[in-house]
Design goal:
With about 625 residues, this protein is mainly α. The protein has 4 domains: about 180 residues, P-loop containing nucleotide triphosphate hydrolases (Rossmann fold), CATH 3.40.50.300; about 160 residues, no CATH class; about 130 residues; about 140 residues. Helix content is about 55%, strand content about 5%. The chain is built from 31 helices and 7 strands. Helix 11 packs parallel to helix 14 and helix 24 packs antiparallel against helix 25.
């Protein structure tokens, strides 16, 4: 701030300088605070132009700031003061009576103090009107005038600003944030129990703040207040562990700045480990310049000393704070206790301990490695995320020459592990939620899989087989599930529909599961026609909905041939009936099924015609 203080000190020595000084800087750098540090409040007249729409509004605001000194003129302005009060007070001079009153009062004021105008970019006046106000006080009334604004915003707002400015502004000073002073000021206002600790972490916080290139002290203020709340959620044993706290505070500060600046969304913090893994996988299969860099990966480049994937504060903790404003003490403590600094064998999965081989005591690491290898050999782990972590670590050990087994052999062993679980009926079926893979797809337990480029393709092969195997595991339960659905069909067709199709108020568990081919078309039509007639239409609607192109061509492709067989069976039943019985069945024939049948017939004709042409 030295250059600002020096110039304003010089400027205040000038008698009627005839020009204004502009103090500019980015939003949130503390422009007003720094000016007031140079010119104390009781040594200037401060006027905010925020929301003012006319020159009379501005002059009235000046008079409101000047009002405590009007009594020096005694009776000389008594009638003017009375008029102002009758008009509703000095600030009402912006009203209908203000024109002549403003002119009268302007003749009475003295330029005994600098006049500071703030918030120029948020003023409602035109550029010409605003500069005209400043000119009144610099050129006609001899004031020293200091203007405070984000000049970039003024340039965006007023197309002629750059040229017009020179008529009024004689000197421009651009300032940056006084981060150190701001930090001290903010810390002084937090809870006393947290104040000393946060003050002690000032070098770390300011290091991260400087690395962010953030120019807003407002953001720093939010970070300080959030750090106080984080401190209050921790236990003494956590706070005493300096290395752990440096990790947590560095991570928390960086994420807080990025979210406050809008460079990261709270949703970008939900799967931090998976973001980088997914990005690396896409880079591996595409040209580098074709892959968009995720915001989290981009942010990491700004903080070389901070690991933004560090799970000392879990994804859930960060989502709580930055999306919902919640500091859950239980979740924060659980997260910190699960970190490498506090974790104890048995508290976390062994793969997490093996992944921390750089930091664990050798005896703890060796015990964890032996346990993990035994879990693999005995096929004890059935959770998809835990399995993939173990598989990735085994691939890493092959890649590094630690296990003595090549990568392809290890890949085959992992796939055999999955197949054996499936055959033994120990592999959990996939969940019915269509987003079911999201819980383990790119990371699990807040940790990304240990996957390097040398074995990305093998890991993807293993993961894809795990997904398909769990699909197969679910398929083994189809007959059992469908038996329950057919019971439902016999007495409540509308609920049968809701079980198979999404509705406005409820998502169906089976909407994208190709479950129907598990029953023969004959048995399905038997159950359909045996149900109450008033429910027949619901069954037809269910088939119609499931035959929408975006379903039958993708997730429900396995039901296409089955559905055509149902149509053939239903048409056969219709043809054996007469009268109203035949009409009833004809009216429930699903139109989309008939359309599919026509497409199949046309395709068959085209193929036969092509073959005939080739033979001739």
């Amino acid at each position: 701030m030295t250059h600002l203080a020096d110039y304003l000190k010089y400027y205040r020595t000038l008698d009627a300088p005839g020009y204004a000084v502009l103090v500019t800087g980015n939003w949130g750098v503390g422009k007003t605070h720094q000016v007031r540090q140079c010119i104390p409040e009781d040594e200037c007249y401060y006027v905010s132009l925020f929301g003012l729409r006319t020159p009379d509004d501005a002059h009235a605001a000046v008079y409101a700031a000047y009002a405590p000194n009007l009594d020096r003129f005694g009776q000389g302005i008594g009638t003017i003061q009375d008029a102002a009060e009758n008009a509703g007070g000095l600030i009402s001079l912006a009203g209908a009576a203000s024109g002549w009153l403003n002119a009268a009062l302007r003749r009475q004021v003295e330029s005994d103090r600098p006049l500071v105008f703030d918030d120029l970019e948020r003023c409602g006046m035109s550029l010409e009107e605003m500069l005209g106000v400043f000119s009144t006080y610099t050129e006609h009334l001899g004031f020293q005038v200091v203007l405070i604004a984000d000049e970039e915003k003024l340039i965006e707002k007023h197309s002629g600003y750059a040229v017009a400015k020179e008529k009024v502004v004689g000197h421009t000073t651009k300032i940056g944030p006084m981060a150190s002073d701001g930090f001290d000021a903010f810390v002084s206002t937090v809870d006393e129990a947290s104040r000393d600790y946060i003050q002690a972490k000032k070098p770390l916080v300011l290091e991260v703040f400087q690395a962010s290139k953030c120019m807003s002290l407002r953001v720093l203020r939010h970070v300080v207040f959030d750090l106080a709340r984080l401190h209050q959620a921790l236990l003494p044993q956590h706070i005493k562990h300096e290395e752990a706290m440096n990790e947590a505070i560095g991570l928390f500060t960086a994420c807080g700045i990025e979210v406050r600046l809008g460079r990261l969304k709270p949703t970008d913090l939900v799967n931090r480990a998976g973001e980088r893994f997914d990005y690396e996988m896409r880079r591996h299969s595409a040209e580098k310049d074709e892959v968009e860099v995720p915001p989290l990966v981009d942010a990491q480049d700004r903080y070389p000393t901070i690991d933004l994937e560090n799970q000392i504060l879990s994804d859930q903790v960060l989502a709580d704070v930055y999306e919902h404003g919640i500091f859950s003490r239980d979740r924060i403590m659980d997260s910190v206790n699960s970190s490498k600094h506090f974790v104890k064998p048995g508290d976390v999965p062994v793969w997490q301990l093996v992944s921390s081989f750089d930091e664990l005591p050798e005896d703890v690491f060796q015990e964890a490695l032996q346990t993990m290898n035994a879990q693999f050999d005995n096929q004890e782990i059935t959770s998809s995320g835990d399995m993939l972590h173990i598989f990735a670590l085994r691939l890493m050990m092959s890649d590094e020459g630690i296990s003595g087994t090549d990568i392809d052999t290890t890949c085959a062993e992992c796939i055999q592990y999955i197949n054996d679980l499936l055959v033994a009926g120990q592999l959990p079926p996939r969940e019915l939620d269509w987003k079911w893979q999201g819980t383990f797809d790119r990371s699990y337990g807040g940790h990304r899989y240990w996957v390097q480029s040398d074995y990305q393709s093998q890991f993807k092969t293993i993961r894809d087989r795990l997904v398909s195997a769990r699909e197969e595991a679910l398929a083994t339960t189809y007959p059992e599930i469908l038996a329950e659905l057919l019971k439902l069909l016999k007495h409540d067709g509308s609920e049968f529909y809701r079980q198979l199709c999404d509705t406005v108020d409820r998502d169906s568990s089976y909407a994208l599961i190709p479950i129907l081919p598990s029953i023969t078309p004959k048995d399905f039509v038997d159950a359909w026609l045996a149900s109450p007639r008033q429910h027949w239409r619901w069954v037809s609607l269910a088939l119609e909905d499931r035959l929408e192109p975006h379903r039958v061509e993708h997730k429900l492709a396995a039901e296409r041939d089955w559905a055509l067989a149902v149509l053939h069976e239903l048409e056969g039943r219709r043809d054996t009936l007469t009268g109203f019985d035949q009409l009833r069945v004809a009216r429930i024939l699903p139109k989309k099924l008939r359309k599919l049948q026509i497409e199949e017939d046309d395709s068959a004709v085209a193929v036969n015609a092509g073959m005939a042409a080739e033979e001739s």
